[in-house]
Amino acid sequence: MGVTIAALIVLSLLQSIAAEPRPEFALSAPVRGTSRVGLAASEANAAISVVNNATLSFTIRYNLTLLNQVFSAVQTVANDFQPLGTTVISSINALASNASGDVDTVFGAALAAVANASSYVTDRMPNITTPLILLVGKPLIEKFEDSFQHIGKALSALNVTLIGLQQGARNAQAAVGVDGTLTSAIVSSYMRSSLITDLVKGLQLLRATVPVLKYTVDSTIEGIAIADQYMLDLANRVALTLGEKSSIAADLDGIIVAIGSAITNTTTSIGTDLSSLQGNFSSLTNVAAAANGSAILALLGDYAANLADLRNKTPSVDTVLGSLKDSVINVYAVAAPLFIIQDSYVVNALIATLIANAEYSQYCFYKYKDFFFSMLDRVSIDARECVDKEVTRLEYFRTTIELMLDVLYYDYEDIAGDLTVCNGISNQANLDECITSLADIYKRLEAAFGDMFALGYGTIAREIAASGSRLKICLRLSQSSLGESDLPLLLEKITICTKDGPNGDEE
Ligand SMILES: *[C@@H]1O[C@H](CO)[C@@H](O)[C@H](O)[C@H]1NC(C)=O
Ligand SMILES: *[C@@H]1O[C@H](CO)[C@@H](O)[C@H](O)[C@H]1NC(C)=O
Ligand SMILES: *[C@@H]1O[C@H](CO)[C@@H](O)[C@H](O)[C@H]1NC(C)=O
Ligand SMILES: *[C@@H]1O[C@H](CO)[C@@H](O)[C@H](O)[C@H]1NC(C)=O
Ligand SMILES: *[C@@H]1O[C@H](CO)[C@@H](O)[C@H](O)[C@H]1NC(C)=O
Ligand SMILES: *[C@@H]1O[C@H](CO)[C@@H](O)[C@H](O)[C@H]1NC(C)=O
Ligand SMILES: *[C@@H]1O[C@H](CO)[C@@H](O)[C@H](O)[C@H]1NC(C)=O
Ligand SMILES: *[C@@H]1O[C@H](CO)[C@@H](O)[C@H](O)[C@H]1NC(C)=O
Ligand SMILES: *[C@@H]1O[C@H](CO)[C@@H](O)[C@H](O)[C@H]1NC(C)=O
Predict the structure, then answer these.
(1) What is the reported pLDDT for 330?
(2) Highest mean pLDDT among 185-189, 201-205, 348-352, 403-407
(3) What's the CA-to-centroid distance between 97 and ligand 3, angstroms?
(4) Residues of the signal sequence (predicted)?
(5) Is 276 within the bounds of a domain?
(6) How many CA atoms lie within 13 A of 75 on its CB side?
(7) For a tag on the chain, would you pick the N or C end, based on fewer CB atoms within 10 A?
């Protein structure tokens, strides 16, 4: 009746669990060596259960597509294999603990689990790993394939053994017939103990080969973790360097503010003088009453209007001066391949090299990783040198502007004295003549005074534009080697290193 074929293996597994024979199942005698099956199965299971360990609580902190994609693929493969392998073990366990006599179903399930795990590498893995070729080349995929080739040998051995055991079970069933009673002796003669040993060996081989896959997973995750930390560090340094950009621009502020305040102070002081002159005018009663006295008052208004004209210039003097900083800020675009690290082809190459998990991956990464940091430092140092040179030049310009400003006072400083002299004249004709001639002289001086303002504004605008150009040229020259040769050269070196390792050094 209920012939318990699989009970043989049941026995072996239960024996291993209880560490003693369990002869109460259909078979009355324990089978030699069966306790080893359960032990081997549990050891294989232990190896399989940790295969995806490294991916479990791993999170990427720096959002780089490359890292996310490679991690996701590795995680998927590890997570896929883990249940496939576990099912192989659990189906062999189920087989062993099943006394139903339904040989084909129970063995069928175990064989299907083996086949499923075995075909993963060809059937399902390529969909996951093929997109990685574009990102990190083939080394990682080859490592996966190699791992599964090793595991495949174990699965193949289990396949052969299970087929052998299944056949033995069928034969034992056939020997006793439907109504016969299966004995230990019959079972032993159809399911030889060497088959049990083979099953143990198959499980041991599985336990021994799964760590190759785990190593591939672990070492790739390790690379991704290093890359992730590196990207965070690099992003920090970029932020510092970009902050440096504004501190370098701030260096220009000193001189810009000095020039601006010299202009403001002088125009303010001239403005005060002129309002005072205008305010005092009515107290010069003779002058105010003279025939051309109103012309004098109008002139004083013309003088003051020049100040308002300067204040109303577009762009304002302050804007013109401030534009100098844009030159520094704009020119940082040259070093963009360093700054925009998300899109940088060189950074990408370095990270791809690292997480490709190829022969020289870590060697090449560590060899070149600090180059980016020194390049970023150089950008700042060069920019500061250019700005320092320009600040020295602008210092001369500031002196020039101050001399120009000082000259402005000459155009009106005698007015008060001259008017006081005229005001002292009591003879009307002489007074009128005095005032008319003053009006005549100061009309021309006022025109010259106005010209000085227009000229001054033009000089400042031109000089600041020239200064901006000089800064740009200086910064671009210092950074051109970066964009045009240093970064491409670094990319080339990384590429050669990835291919040839330490032998790639031709220098
Ligand atoms: C695997 O992960 C489990 C659960 O997170 C943990 O208990 C175990 O120690 C890990 N094993 C290894 C070998 O890392
Ligand atoms: C990560 O980067 C991608 C592409 O740059 C972007 O679409 C996505 O929103 C980012 N995710 C997070 C969490 O920042
Ligand atoms: C044994 O296998 C048969 C057929 O698949 C199934 O119906 C039965 O539930 C199994 N018994 C045990 C104890 O797993
Ligand atoms: C094979 O594996 C897939 C995915 O893990 C699963 O959905 C399927 O049920 C498995 N088939 C067998 C026969 O174990
Ligand atoms: C198991 O063995 C059979 C018969 O030799 C074969 O057809 C099948 O491909 C094998 N399966 C595996 C996973 O090795
Ligand atoms: C593999 O990818 C292709 C294209 O993306 C898809 O059509 C197919 O269903 C995938 N196959 C499996 C087994 O996931
Ligand atoms: C302008 O005036 C302010 C306030 O009186 C003074 O602090 C500053 O040094 C002056 N600037 C120049 C360039 O003379
Ligand atoms: C205006 O008059 C006041 C008071 O008499 C005098 O102190 C001041 O110097 C005068 N202003 C000018 C510009 O002469
Ligand atoms: C007032 O000035 C005008 C223009 O300079 C001159 O022609 C005229 O003679 C002056 N008037 C007197 C009364 O001096």
Answers:
(1) 67
(2) 201-205
(3) 9
(4) 1-19
(5) no
(6) 13
(7) C
Spatial CA neighbour of 320 closest among 388, 266, 386, 401: 401
Residue 199 lies inside a defined structural domain of this protein: yes
Best residue for ligand 4 mutational test, from 77, 95, 114, 116 (most atoms within 8 Å of Cβ): 116
The pLDDT of residue 54 = 95
Ligand 2 atom 2, closest CA: 63
Nearest-angstrom CA–CA distance, 111 and 166: 10
Structure tokens at 161: 């053994």
Handedness of CA 191, 194, 198, 203 (dihedral sign): positive
> Angle of helix 65-96 relative to helix 103-123, nearest 10 degrees?
160
d(CA 336, CA 327): 15
Evaluate whether 411 touches 449 at the Cβ level (below 8 Å): yes
CB–CB of 26/7 below 8 Å? Answer: yes
Q: How far apart are CA 436 and CA 414, in angstroms?
A: 16
DSSP codes, 271-337: HHHHHHHHHHHTT-HHHHHSTTHHHHHHHHHHHHHHHHHHHT-SS-HHHHHHHHHHHHHHHGGGGHH
What's the rounded Cα separation, in Å, for the pair 443 and 213?
96
Is 18 buried (19+), middle (13-18) or exposed (0-12) by CB count in 10 A?
exposed
Q: Which residues line ligand 4 (CB under 6 A)?
A: 83-84, 87, 112-113, 116
331: nearest Cα among 470, 485, 487, 490: 470
Residue with CA closest to ligand 7 atom 9: 261
Q: Give the whole-angstrom CA distance, residue 507 versus residue 66.
A: 31
Domain of 149 in residue numbering reads as 23-221
Instruction: Of 70-79, 186-195, 388-397, give the lowest mean pLDDT range.
Output: 186-195
pLDDT in tens, 200-217: 999 999 999 999 999 999
pLDDT of residue 159: 97
Q: What is the mean pLDDT of the chain?
A: 85
Residue 236 to residue 256: CA distance in whole angstroms: 30
User: What pLDDT shows up at residue 14?
Assistant: 38
The closest alpha carbon to 13, from 31, 39, 32, belongs to 39
Peptide bond preceding 211 in cis form (omega within 30 of 0): no
Cα(298) to centroid(ligand 1), Å: 94
Query: What does the pLDDT look like over 126-177, one tens digit per residue?
Result: 999 999 999 999 999 999 999 999 999 999 999 999 999 889 888 888 888 8
State the pLDDT at residue 30.
41
The alpha-helical segments, DSSP class H, found in 482-503 are 487-500
**315 pLDDT above the threshold of 80:** yes
- Asked whether residue 47 is domain-assigned, the answer is yes
**What integer pLDDT is reported at residue 26 of this predicted model?**
24
37/17 Cα distance (integer angstroms): 10
Do residues 412 and 269 lie in contact, with contact meaning Cβ atoms separated by under 8 Å? Answer: no
Q: How many domains does the chain have?
A: 1
